[in-house]
Sequence to fold (276 residues):
Amino acid sequence: MAVGSAPAVYVITGASSGIGEATARRLAIDGAAVVLVARRQERLARLAGELGPRASYVALDLTDEDAPQLVRAHVLEHHDRLDLLVNNAGASWRATFADGGWGNVERTMSLNFDAQVRLTEALLPLLRRSAPSAIVNVSSTAGRVARPGAGAYSASKFALAGWSDALWAEERAHGVHVGLVLPGFIETEGFPASELLAKPLTRWIVSTPQAAAEAIYDAGIGRRAERWVPRGYGLIAALRTVAPGLYRRLIAGGAGDTFMTATGADAADAQAQTAP
Fold:
């Protein structure tokens, strides 16, 4: 995709691994200039080198106060336009509310929702000026249905999904499309899903970062309203809507524990606590 003689410009957050990396690779196929955003500079530099001279990166923590303006300054300096923003960065720290409390909710919301909103605010004038353009917010199946032990994560992804609908209605007149992607279990560094992959009965429900990247492409470049990954996960949300009592009985009866998996953020915390 190109704009006149210049390539389109796409910003992807959480781009150092998993869905973000796969999305950057997918978008670069069209010859776009991709701006990779994440914390790990070495990984971003390596990926940018693989994608070619049109790829650049900004290594930072999106929860830092000056992060949105630093990303905006980079885009203005190198491109002076923006055709697609993919808000993909996120993490999950598993804990019940009784154990994790407000602290777990706060840090999860800070990254998964607040950081996305703040970055969008900083880049929205560029997106409007470059219209037709698009924003893709990567929520989760957990943004429509919740499980015990992942309430903070669901709260952040529910918020992102709800905000996306309102933002679409507000920005359509300005030529900025807002798409929503809701992945289920995707095997990534942040969400290894090893417990599910180890069992033949649950292995089939785990999808790939490449499938999520195609959904993001559809929601952004294809201007689709909403994409589930895999598509069948939408049935879970339908069950929650039409039979909430049944859904609650299922997650209280052990189904919630069956699908509770360890996360990369949990592993990082555990490693930090044991480090000398």
In short: The radius of gyration is 18 Å. The domain at 2-274 is CATH 3.40.50.720 (Rossmann fold). The CA atoms of residues 142 and 154 lie 5 Å apart. The mean pLDDT is 88.
